[in-house]
Amino acid sequence: MALIGTLRNKMGKIVVGVIMLTMIAFIGTDLIGNSTLLGGGQNQDIAEIAGNTISNVKFQNKVEELSYNFALNSGRNPIQQEIDQIRNQAWNALIFDKAYQLQFDELGIEVTNDELVDMVQGSNISPQIIQFFSDPATGQFDKSRITNFLASLQQAQPQQRNSWISFERSLLPGRLIEKYNNLFAKTNYVTGYEAAEEYTSQNANASIEYVFVPFSSISDSLITVADDELKDYLIENASEYERDEARSMEYVAFDILPLPTDSADAREEVAALREGLIDASDDSTFVKINSDDPFSFLTYSEEDLPDSLKEKSIGYVSRPVISNGFYEFQKLSGKEEYAPDSILYKVARIKKDITLYISDKTINEKYREAGFFAASCGNLEELRRLAKEKELRIQTGDRIDKNAQRVGILTEARSLVLWLYNDAEGGVVSDVKEIGNKYIVAAMTGIQEEGVANLEDVRNRVEREIRNEKKAAIIIEKFTSLEVSSIDEVVNSYGDGAKTGTSDFQLSSSNITGVGYAPEAIGVAFALDEEEMKRPFAIQDGVLLIKLLAKDIPSDIDDYTPYATQVSGRRLSNNALIADFPLSYFRLFISKDIHDAVKDFAEIEDMRYKFF
Predict the structure, then answer these.
(1) How far is the C-alpha of 356 from the C-alpha of 313, rounded, in Å?
(2) In Å, what is the CA distance from 366 to each residue of 326, 359, 414, 415?
(3) Which residues pair with 134 in a beta bridge?
(4) Can you give 9-21 as a three-state secondary structure string?
């Protein structure tokens, strides 16, 4: 971010070049191109948060505001991927303004104007201000640096002042979240019992001898599972199969690739660009104008210098190569020697998207091919049949969330997701969709409503669970029919499939050597008396019979404080990111449990998928 580097190094001489008209046009075109947004009579609400209805217009205003902040502080307009990130930050802003602010208001949490002044230039200066205005050479903070900077703003350009105002405002959410989070952190109390349990869990040890019969020892072919059993199991265990709303599709992709004639034209243009870079008097300006990559004037150490430029003279331009869909070549523009063993090289790089060199004729031919395919498919079954006839690969996109950005291997596939949620019908084939350098023809294959999973989507898992239950019953019945009194006798009498072993573990363990994941067996072992043998019981992957050989339960100690600290730290360690640039200049985190609770209480209805 240009602002950060400038504040630290230039102390107020903020110079940013922003072309807002093109940015607004970019966003505006995105909106105008969305038929849902401008379609007459359709609901224009994008969300409901904590009882507040949010219109798409209000949301887009926030997107434009954050896009302006991005351009103001980055010195350039956001690219498409960054626009997507800005939309996510605008969504986070809605949650903060409506869900979190409700919490702040109820608890009386606020940041006053006097407190903001104190954060910037008073006695309790914000850590972010200290970070920005510390001497880069010594790392020491001097308050006079911030006061001098603020005084200079009176004569600064409007962009400078706006950039500072944007930065200063970003301090407020961070302080509010800090106060809110501290309410929970400072009142997070670990009881003496919890601390003692943690101590025992870490220090109690046990040794067992066991017999383990894995479910795989019984062939699946010996176990039958009826559809009624699958349905009943899913009903009885519904809580384990809760799903968010999702949809699935199958699609055929038609790659838009340059023909030989296109490649020849591309090579000629790239060769001309290379000659231009060779003769350029201002390499930085030349690559900014001609490269498809916004980061085209780079600095390298001697070790990191690209191989194509090593041991080359200043002014050398490498040969063009194709890399990750781009024609790419580089010029060694200069070097600066700070010390005998410290040299930095300046490199100008041209990257040209190879797809830009595909001719209109090639694009039209591929579009006609995809369009004819789509018109020839009346439904999903016909799509599958025709794809097989034409030896086209059918690809799948499973459990696609309504806010997904990608489908299967397709990135930036938002338009396809919009079709899937707004226009698709079961089995009906889509019109041709352009995704990157591909034309896509798709058909929806399934809808998962929010709630219990569709049986077909979880059939394999449910069937496996039922098979294992039946196998467990068979194995346990065989165990109990044996007239034995020792582990060795059990193994010898049971026959093939049974294996024995010993294992040492702590109460906090979840695995048993030779058995695998079996936390329930750990608890059973510690509940036994020494030399006691527990009757067989089912675990995740089989049936287990255990005999406790020995256990050591630690004696009480006087001070459990270290263990209380561990429990407390574990509770607070799982954080959720709730704000990032350009909504905030610093990443804002809060406990994930708290964040989930705030969103649950706000009863958020997310309808972004209707618009973009």
Answers:
(1) 32
(2) 21, 11, 21, 19
(3) 141
(4) HCCCCCCCCCCHH
- Give the model's pLDDT for residue 23: 44
Look at the alpha carbons of 273, 278, 284, 286 in this order and tell me if their dihedral is positive or negative.
negative
Q: How many Å is the maximal CA-CA distance in the chain?
A: 96
**In this structure, which amino acid lies at residue 88?**
N
Residue 91 token pair:
């969504």
Beta bridge partners of 367: none
Angle at 582 between CA 134 and CA 298, to 5 degrees: 70
Q: What is the pLDDT of residues 464-478, one digit of tens each?
A: 999 999 999 999 999
Please work out, in degrees rounded to the nearest 5, the angle formed at the alpha carbon of residue 177 by the alpha carbons of 190 and 589: 80
Task: Name the nearest CA neighbour of 453 among 192, 221, 224, 234.
Answer: 234
Which tokens go with 20?
A: 């807002």
Within 8 A by CB and 6+ apart from 554, the residues are 199, 200, 203, 204
Q: What does the pLDDT average to over 52-67?
A: 92
Instruction: Look up residue 426 and give its DSSP letter.
Output: B
Token pair, residue 561, equals 């404080």
Q: How far apart are the first and last CA of the chain?
A: 27
Cβ-contact 206, 412 below 8 angstroms: no
Query: pLDDT value at position 609?
Result: 85
Distance CA 541, CA 497 (A): 13
Q: Which two tokens stand for residue 464?
A: 């496996």
- Cis before residue 582, ω within 30 degrees of 0? yes
The SS3 call for residue 53 is strand
In a 3-state reduction of DSSP, which class is residue 577? Answer: strand
Of residues 512 and 582, the one with the higher pLDDT is 512
Is 265 within 8 Å of 454 (Cβ atoms)?
no
Q: Which H or E element spans position 588?
A: strand 588-591
Q: How many residues does the chain have?
A: 612
Tell me the DSSP string of 70-132: HHHHHSS---HHHHHHHHHHHHHHHHIIIIIHHHHHHHT----HHHHHHHHHSSS--HHHHHH
Q: Which of 84-93, 255-264, 483-492 has the lowest mean pLDDT?
A: 255-264
The pLDDT-based confidence of 561 (bands split at 50, 70, 90) is very high
